[in-house]
Design brief:
Helix content: 40-55%
Strand content: under 5%
Order of helices and strands: HHH
Structural class: mainly alpha
Radius of gyration: 25 Å
Largest sheet: none
Number of helices: 3
Shape: elongated
Distance between the termini: 63 Å
Number of strands: 0
Length: about 110
Amino acid sequence: MPRPRVPVPKVRLLWPDRDGRLSACGADWKAIDVSHGPACPKNLLEEAMDTPNGGLVRRCFRLLNAKNIGLTITLADITEEEFRVLELIEGERQEQIKAGDGGHMSSR
């Protein structure tokens, strides 16, 4: 005996058109503001990373990523500044492990 057919409702996706109006009902599209305020730690970090010292920190995180994927990095491959930042990153990671969050980077 064949199964009865269940009607499938037509679903219309609501996407704004080029003018910002929803195609299904013509209402205006209202974007949600998800930006961070100027005092947000995320914004402060992004601003700090745009400085020369931020570039140094970024390079050091890239070095750590390279090490984690198996590349061999020796002291001859990095500068003294990079080595010092790597020490600071490792020290912070150890502090986080002691604090009980497993050393995962998190926002404060």
